[in-house]
Amino acid sequence: MQIKPILSALRHHKAGTILIAVQIALTLAIVCNALFIIQQRITMLTRSTGIDEAHLIRLQNQWVGVDDKHVGSLMQTDLDTLRRLPGVADAYATNSTPLSNGGWSTGIGLKPGGKGERVQTAIYFADDHTLDTLGLKLVAGRNFRSSEVVDQMQHDGLDPPQVIVTRAVADKFFPDGDAVGKRVYLGNKPSIIVGVVARLQVPWVGGWAANWEGRSTLVPRRLMASGTNFVIRAKDGQIDKVLHSAPAALLASDRMRVIPDDDGVVTFAQMRQEAYQSDRGMAILMGVICVVLLGITAAGIVGLTSFWVGQRRKQIGVRRALGATRRDILSYFLTENLLIGATGVVLGMLLAVGMNQWLMNTFEMQRLSWPWIVSGVIVLLALGQAAVLAPAIRASRVPPVVATRTV
Amino acid sequence: MLAYYLRLGLRSLRRNPMLTSLMVLAIGFGVAASMTTYAVFRAVSGNPIPDKSAQLYKPLIDNWGHANGRTSDDPPNAMDYTDAAALMKDGKGVMQTVSYPLGLSVIPADPKAKPFRVYGYATYADFFPMFGVPFKYGGAWPADDDARHAPVAVIGEKINQRLFGGANSVGRSIDIEGNRYRIAGVTRAWNPQPRFYDVNNTGGFAADPPEVWIPFTRAVDLQIPTWGNNNCNGRVAPGWDGWLHSECIWLSYWVELPDAAAAARYKNYLHAYAAQQQQAGRFDWAPNVRLYNVTQWLADQHVVPQESQVSLLVAMGFLVVCLVNTIGLLLAKFMRRAPEIGVRRALGASRGEVYRQFLAEAAMVGVAGGVLGLLLTAGGVLGIGMVFDPDIARLARVDVSLIALTLLVAVVATVLAAFYPTWRAARVQPAWQLKSN
Amino acid sequence: MLKMTHLSKVYRTEVVETYALRDFNIDVKEGEFVAVTGPSGSGKTTFLTIAGLLETFTGGEYLLDGVDVSGLNDNARSKIRNEKIGFIFQAFNLIPDLNVFDNVEVPLRYRGMKAAERKQRIMDALERVGLASRLKHYPAELSGGQQQRVAIARALAGSPRLLLADEPTGNLDTQMARGVMELLEDIHREGATIVMVTHDPELAARAQRNVHIIDGQEVDIAEDPRFHAEHAASSHV
Ligand SMILES: Nc1ncnc2c1ncn2[C@@H]1O[C@H](COP(=O)(O)OP(=O)(O)O)[C@@H](O)[C@H]1O
Ligand SMILES: [Mg+2]
């Protein structure tokens, strides 16, 4: 196929050519960035928390009219009630859990009093049942002993003698993998790392914890506050039953408490759903926009090419009369579209990178990687060829006899 | 003549239903995507208190400096107890309040009824007139009660309904966590969005209105902890008092100042206060203070969610593509009618008449696209809960102004898109007809 | 009515300059019926488009109704076309989307006439051309002769004082051509000035006066040698 005659034909309908190229360019820029946003969000929402979500329930409990100092015994009674419940494998009480988007964080380092290099870590209040309940695996060291678990008032400094940390924390300070037995500092007194777990995500799924979402620390403490979270592990297939029996059992043992009706008792599956709602929604929105955008661009190409075919019927007839085969006509239009598409995607790549740069500056988004642009380019060129196929086939069916007709 | 052009346009649009529906779909989708995301953006970026947003100010004092490896040059976005108490004592504004969020259990008088949770604020009497809280019964507690650390409360309509069947409960009492409070007032539903007065703890958006307020002084006496964020930097001595006198930030301070001059004076006052703290040796850095009005504060705290901004931008890009698409299709459609245009010109149509004829046709596409866009926008706003945080999504509404805007955007955008094709159409030479035989 | 002196028209394209008309002179009096003849490409259509204010000219002077038209803007020219001039094209040029009635209505619309008056005039014009029964037909449903009669009705509806026709019978068979010619003669008798370009010597002969154009210039048929040469050549074909 010769390109020169196509180029000179394109020069005759400059405006239409430019419009299609611009449309392809804008579509490419938007689709690349939208796909990239989708990918980022999906990476976010498929991250594991490290815990056995499928079997876990969170129960938010608030004791009423109790002095914080006396919470300890109430907590123990409730835990006994829960652990005895049929269908419950284990349970513990804590300040926060992964996917809850609210919790406690502090700096952790190798020197006391907040000096030296420190990184941010989430603090989870825990006891000797925590690892079992959450289904966390120790990769080194041991679990807390029940004797190590003591009460902690809300406003007192946090300096537990023992901690269990995630591998992300351990590797930060002890890259050789020998963290167990070493000292770290949350406050002013040292804490000995007694165990290391493979992974435990921090409570926050959003942006502010993005750089340290795996750095969690378990402390052997019972938080003396009138509100607490019970985490309950149900036995296989019992989770729906426990969802109802657990709050009922607690209320039966002591009515002076509040377990909120709406989100008081939820499974971790529900928590995940809620925590990542806006990420999933954003991915869906971007996906819908991509699909509709590609559809509209394809339809636009079909529309304009059909018009050109209609306009050039006579000319096509003349070519056919002069010996052009159907294939020649078909490939004429396909090549024409490819040329326009190529111009469009070159322009589009620049636009995509520019748009990404701008998004990076304004919204702390990551840099668009080449594979995304390349796949966008392929998608758009293929889309263009597919869109032009129908009108091109119609053009190739123009009979040579058209040449002899006047209009 | 307009009716004539509309009739001609309709006929022409009916002639290629494919092309016409393509344009209508493009405009409809483009406008709907933009309007749906705009509905959300409008809701989250609105001014929550338009009458007073320039009189309400948020003072910030840097009580952290660069201690403990902190790198930010901005003061923390909340206040510690020491500074809040000092500013409150000076009372330099027309009105001022300091508040923190509460999560409390209410124990109903009826022993058979279960206790339930309520959320609200510990604050000062000025809170209510400053922020324009509407009352159904009674009103704010008198300022004296703040000084007396009195057990009084303002409650919301919803718990008034639950506890008192909606009757006027002013003067009656409510049991909160075992303490009794005399009810001073019952508010109507009041939930300005964004929740400018408590951005620190809500990020700006909270679906449920606060339902209870008690004096700040009373709450501190009872050692009721904050239900919101508490961020500490540096040492905290044990116990409630240790915490109160730490540099932990957990309080939201607001002051009402009548005008810019007063604001400038207040800023000087803050500066002087910080300088005094520096001299006293509490801060070992130069005074670093801020004074934001409501809109500045919302902007500073980036209250408008990133999702909302990005999706609005992407949707607008989408609309632009749809318009480019429409330009192309209109161009094809109009230029196919070059012979007709030539004849009309030869028969005496001026360029203006050609413009009017074709813009009228485009406007009809715009109206059809707008109607489709309206339906899709309505669907989009319903479905937006899937995409955005429900606290935010429920703020997006289809109201008269959104309907009008959708139609306007559709028609204006289409007519703009039609300008180039129409210009080309109007340039068709009248002689074209004779020469092209 | 129509007076051109030393008129010239140059078409400039990227490669060539074409003199479609050069030093062209003509004077058509009110009420005359002039036939314009000449070989293909000699500038007949160009003359007509300039006479009808469809195009501007490059040099010389053109007085229409005693008014110098060179200074008029596009709107003024449109108005004159609409009110004073009627066009009949070789290819009829009816608007395919509009039915007969609506086609005839087009120039009246631009004149801002009341609906009742428009209707009256359209019916009168269609009656004249014998197509009053075909109001609702679309151009595609009419024969060539009928289409041209609709085109004439459209030209007549506005009661123009000057009727310009470019080979109005070129696309018609002899029978139909004669019908159209008779119609034009009728119109002329009622006082309209008609300028008609034609190839057909028989039709040309029926006009009051013949103007011959060769290479963009008006020539005297009797004297110009080019005419004889061309005439001889064409008679061989
Ligand atoms: N729009 C134009 N652009 C360039 N050249 C033109 C144009 N219109 C006419 N011409 C040239 O002007 C000359 C006269 O054309 P025309 O008036 O159409 O002749 P006729 O009608 O006598 O056949 C021809 O040589 C033709 O090629
Ligand atoms: Mg000609």
From TrEMBL, chain A:
Every ABC3 transporter permease C-terminal domain range: 288-400
UniProt keywords, alphabetically: Cell membrane, Membrane, Transmembrane, Transmembrane helix
Main location: membrane
InterPro entries assigned: ABC3_permease_C, MacB_PCD, Macrolide_Exporter_MacB
Membrane topology per record: Multi-pass membrane protein
GO function terms (MF aspect): transmembrane transporter activity
Residues of the MacB-like periplasmic core domain: 53-237
Protein localization: Cell membrane
GO cellular-component term (any): plasma membrane
Membrane-traversing stretches: 16-38, 282-309, 329-352, 372-393
Signal peptide: none
A matching Pfam family: FtsX
Protein's UniProt keywords contain Coiled coil: no
Record family assignment: Belongs to the ABC-4 integral membrane protein family.
Listed name of the protein: Peptide ABC transporter permease
Organism field: Oleiagrimonas soli
Automatic annotation (TrEMBL), chain B:
Highest taxon of source: Bacteria
Annotated localization: Cell membrane
UniProt GO molecular function: transmembrane transporter activity
Main location group: membrane
Residue ranges annotated for the MacB-like periplasmic core domain, each copy included: 20-263
Membrane-spanning intervals of the chain: 21-41, 310-332, 358-388, 400-420
Protein topology in the membrane: Multi-pass membrane protein
Cellular-component GO terms for this entry: plasma membrane
Domain ABC3 transporter permease C-terminal stretches: 314-430
Protein keywords: Cell membrane, Membrane, Transmembrane, Transmembrane helix
Coiled-coil residues: none
Protein name as catalogued: Peptide ABC transporter permease
Automatic annotation (TrEMBL), chain C:
A molecular-function term among this protein's GO annotations: transmembrane transporter activity
Keyword check for Transmembrane: no
Keyword Oxidoreductase: no
Domain ABC transporter per the UniProt entry, residue ranges: 2-237
PROSITE patterns linked: ABC_TRANSPORTER_1, ABC_TRANSPORTER_2
SUPFAM superfamilies, alphabetized: P-loop containing nucleoside triphosphate hydrolases
One CC-aspect GO term: transmembrane transporter complex
InterPro entries found in the cross-reference section: AAA+_ATPase, ABC_transporter-like_ATP-bd, ABC_transporter-like_CS, ABC_transpr_LolD-like, MacB-like_ATP-bd, P-loop_NTPase
Alphabetical UniProt keywords: ATP-binding, Nucleotide-binding, Transport
PANTHER family named in the record: ABC TRANSPORTER ATP-BINDING PROTEIN YTRE, IMPORT ATP-BINDING PROTEIN
Similarity section: Belongs to the ABC transporter superfamily. Macrolide exporter (TC 3.A.1.122) family.
The name this protein goes by in its record: ABC transporter ATP-binding protein
Record organism: Oleiagrimonas soli
